Amino acid sequence: MNTKFKNILYSLGIYHPLQSQYRNFVFHVKRLFFKISFFSYKGHGFTCNVCQQQYFRFVDDRPASENKNALSNNDVIAGYGKNIICPNCLANARERLVVAMLQHHINIDNKKILHLSPEKNVYQYLQTKSQVVTADLAPGFYKNIDKQIKTEDATAFSFADQSFDVVIANHVLEHIPDDLKAMSEIFRVLKKGGVAILQVPYSETISESIEESLIENPERQSALFGQKDHVRIYQLNDYISRLEQSGFIVSKISYKELSAFHRHAIQLDETFLDIKKPY
After folding, report:
1. Which residues contact 238 (CB under 8 A, 6 or more apart)?
2. Side-chain half-sphere of 2: how many Cα atoms within 13 Å?
3. Which of 174, 175, 193, 173 is nearest to 185 (CA)?
4. pLDDT confidence of 3, banded at 50, 70, 90?
């Protein structure tokens, strides 16, 4: 979109509502297309744990050309690959992993949950079990998911200490320049014994995290990090160290240990981080 035109829409206060409507339109078009084109694949194989539909293959998802080199050269596990998108509800692999952990590993019944940059399918599942507060720095993008979404900066929450039992920020921290400040704020608003779901794109083969926290160049961000609004690629152990530095207790659950969820077509080789605030 032309920057000047975009700024006009911003000044009129309609940029985010229009973007939200556009995203909703694209979602429904894609869903109709996949439901028709993948009808012949319906049957036993994978079961989407969001909509419960079964297909013997899901939709593959590949990164855009401008993002591909950074992801492939650095062996980043970032949500792309085979069998990523459910043809029926369009839940993606990273959503299905979070929902699986909420269904079978993390107790959320009657809990108070903060859901940052809320993903539609995760949010809808949370609503059936918990009291959910959604928030984002640009909430207009998410009004079609939750009309009550709050405007919040993850590095300076307005919430009181120990306000939430669970905080979910799925693929969010790689966008935030001061990630340590965001981690400390998430730690602060979590109750003692609370759980944080903070999955990020990561690599286990690079020697250290690659980052330019103050970068504001979408083309360079795509070339370096594999997405135009990312500011880093985390090295997994470095990411864990940052979380531990913020006070969290972190343990890794490997893809192999998640074998019970492979039938949901979760992201190949992705490790889930079990992140807790100590009592």
Report:
1. 208, 209
2. 4
3. 173
4. low
pLDDT tens profile 222-271 = 999 999 999 999 999 999 999 999 999 999 999 999 999 999 999 999 99
Half-sphere exposure of 120 (CA within 13 A, CB side): 14
CA–CA distance, 163 with 265 (Å, rounded to integer): 33
User: Is 86:50 a contact under the CB 8 Å cutoff?
Assistant: yes
Cα(124)–Cα(5) distance, integer angstroms: 34
pTM: 0.92
Tens digit of pLDDT for each residue in 88-117?
999 999 999 999 999 999 999 999 999 999
From the CB of residue 212, how many other CB atoms can be counted at a distance below 10 Å? 15
Q: Which domains does the chain have, with CATH numbers?
A: 93-276 (3.40.50.150)
Instruction: Output the CA–CA distances (angstroms, integers) from residue 212 to 8, 141, 215, 236, 245, in the order listed.
Output: 29, 25, 5, 17, 20
131, β-bridge pairs: 112
Cα(first)–Cα(last) distance of the chain, in Å? 48
Tell me which amino acid residue 213 is: S
Q: Is 257 helix (H, G, I), strand (E, B) or coil?
A: helix
